[in-house]
Amino acid sequence: MTTPSHIRNFSIIAHIDHGKSTLADRVLQLTHTVEDRDMVEQVLDSMDIERERGITIKAQAVRVLYEADDGETYQLNLIDTPGHVDFTYEVSRSLQACEGCLLVVDAAQGVEAQTVANALMALNAHLEIIPVINKIDLPSADPERVRHEIEEALAIPADEAVLASAKSGEGVREALEAIVRRVPPPVGDADGPLKALIFDSYFDAYRGVVALIRVIDGSISKGMKVRTMASATVIDVEEVGVRRPANLPVDELTVGEVGYLITGLKDPSLVKVGDTVTLAKHGATEPLPGYREVKPMVFTGLFPIDGDQYPELRDALDKLLLNDPALVYEPESSHALGFGFRCGFLGLLHMEVIKERLEREFDLDLLATAPSVEYHAFRTNGEMVTVHSPQDMPDAGVLERIEEPYLKATVLVPPDFVGAVMELSESRRGSFKDMQYLSKTTVEMHYEIPLSELIMDYFDQLKSRTRGYASLDYEYIGYQASDLVKLDVLLAGKPVDALSFIVHKDKAFVRGRALTEKLREIIPRQMFDVPIQAAIGSRVLARETVKAKRKDVLAKCYGGDITRKRKLLEKQKKGKKRMKAVGSVEVPQDAFMAILKVDE
Amino acid sequence: MSEFGDNGLDLTDALRDGPHIPAHVYIHVPFCRVKCSYCDFYSVSDLASVRIEAVLRGIEAELTQWGASGLPGVVETVYLGGGTPTVIVGGAVRLVRAALEEFPVRAGAEVTVEANPDSVTPALMEALAAVGATRVSVGVQSFVEGEIALLGRVHTVDEAVDACRAVRGAGLELSVDLMCGIPGQTKASWVTSLEQAVSCGASHVSVYPLTLEPGTPLEVAVSTGLVDEPDPDLGADQMIMAEEFLSMGDIERYEVSNYARAGRESRHNLAYWTGRSYLGIGPAAHGMLDAATALATGLIDPAHAKAGAARVRYGNVRDIDTWLTSSEVEIEVLDQDQTLREDVMLGLRLVRGVPHGQVLVAGVEDALVDLEREGLVERVTASGRAVLVEGVVPSMRWRTTRRGWLLGNEVFGRVLGD
Fold first, then answer.
1. Is A577 an interface residue toward B (CB < 8 Å)?
2. How would residue A84 be classed by pLDDT, with cut points 50, 70 and 90?
């Protein structure tokens, strides 16, 4: 057991790609937690997708022992947080487990939107913030300008900012020294009833649900009977331990310490991030503040391209759910696509990651429909229907109004691009709130914008229209009424439910036209004419036709051509397998995402 | 076409013969003066005489090896293709002579040499005729200046006309290759090319729609927008125009892309489309042997034969130096089921179509009934009249329709099946 005076709990926060995971790697190496020869890049990002995409999806906690310049050895608990706006709630819980943080800012890119968002969260959690200006070895690095930006934009003193290059290891020791000197040791009541914060959990095939916890008051040890305060689950503690980064069992975790708790539970939904663990009997009366249920924001239909893979898809989702309780899904059937699942995600990145994991880890070929949000449709009789899929939208005749989720979007951008951001945001139904100069080079703009518009190509457009300079952060603010309609798409005269989408009435005509044009490009010519129509109810807004193919000749067929052509035909056949037969029309996967790619 | 016999059930060599020398010999000459912008066949434009001599000796050695194999068989057709065989001038003459000397050759054998207009001279044509060539296939592609230039070819319209005259002047049969679907080509310019081909005395015309092969200069130019993408619908119209125009001059279609006066069909190419085996000699040449011959000559081992091999397709390496120094070949072994399907696929390329019995044996009747419903194939009587009743009539054949010619990939793909 280490006395709290020698414990420091900290996390690393940063805008995406500013070098958070690389810095974490160097901390593990410098403290000999992981020997150089065992080092793989981004040790803490354990999934392939995390490493490839350079993002952290799950929180991690590692204990390192650090011999400081004062000759004392400190127990440092590094809590690596997810680095994406989809996982804001998880980040906020991880920060609650710390007393301080390293705020990593790229020495060339400077302060970006998630730098601001993360720094605000850290300030709200009353953390000691140590700025680290990273990548100082880049030719385009300008640490002085960045130091200035941190002070101006974030109002965080940066004269003692650590200058570092996580890549080369320069400045890493200075960062650890700053943690020891500046981050306060944890304070708690060692003799009070147990209070521990769950800041993440995962499922282990052999041990069941494992929670990552931070002990605030009291202590926890093997064999104790504890309970979670929000979900009221009783747990017989099978084991407690710390991660270095492999699991190392310990006798107990005491005030201020961070570690894991093996619950033996089989159902991950019983252990929720943000919940408080206390004694089963005579426990604490007040839970730790800040717990809330995580709700999915973005919904999409996932369908196996080969209908026979439906049971495999269900099993795969069941398995992923164990490690990702934020994922929700229910069976959905589509006339066009057959049986699949309507899945809910925290955001677009979460959706992409899950789809990619399903395809890669479970070898499934999936077709995703365009993402949607949760609409609240109010019938004339006052009843509210939650709509996750355009198919579920009640008929216009019985609808009184539709409400949709709104976000407060924060865009950070150089002043030259303010006009471009305004133009884009307004075309996506954003309403301008305010803007302010954070520094001479950075303007912060606020918009209220429907989530449904943001999940179109808003982010891609923002990046391209500002030549990559803009950065985006957003938070959910609630539901507002909108004048929305359901737009149907008909192929060869038959409505294709999976292509329907919900759109603002003023945009229906333009988007309907743009979508039919796009579909005409995407759907290959078939053996017959394929009319494409966009309609609201029975009113057709736009019509295009994919003309029947007339010529697809295997011209030359001499000596060597026969083998060649056979290979070519086989390749074409494989290409066809990537398409979904909707009625008699072969529809490529891209078609279902076309609405995200239309130019207006 | 009588020499290919038609007993209603076209059995292939594979099911009929023991080891033998194939009746058809293809020789690949991998040299061109300039590489055309659309072509992805194997050829090099390094015309150093040492290299050419090495290739000629290599081909001659291979011909000698087969000639001395002691296997039975008589050669009926020889085809010297490329590349551009005529670019090596005397070399082409030497190879024709060698082929006809090394094998027992049937009287009246068809001996074709491929040529490009810029390498045809009256002297060369006379020399080829003197050693036994009977036919020259000239790669004209177009009789319109701008189109020729776009294809990256080095000849002019006048040279093309002169070349055709030289072929006829030496008493050789003339075949002309034409291409439709060229970017910028119009219906009017297409008629010009067809007219010229006929008036030059061609008894055989091959019509290919331009295929943009990945990585060729023309394909790159189209995909980067430098050249307009050919309109597939215009290409379809042009193919139909070719059929109608040539037919008026009694040059009738006998295969998807090939037209000839009666009796002037290419017997060598018909061998490809009727499942006959053929030798492929030279770098990048392809050949096809029945399993018995392939086993006897060591192309496959007994394990293949045991596993049910019926037909073996092989390709020599696409690199002169590797070909000269190794005996590496790429092989594709087909079992009996694949062989029978392939024969139906090839047969549907022919205007005369495929006998119903052959369709039954290959097990592709269902596929053809589906294709018939879509108007891509039809049932005809022995005399070529459409069968209007459902079911089977005596001596019935299956034939590709005009719509089916244009959608060949669909027809042939479904016949080849999984």
1. no
2. low
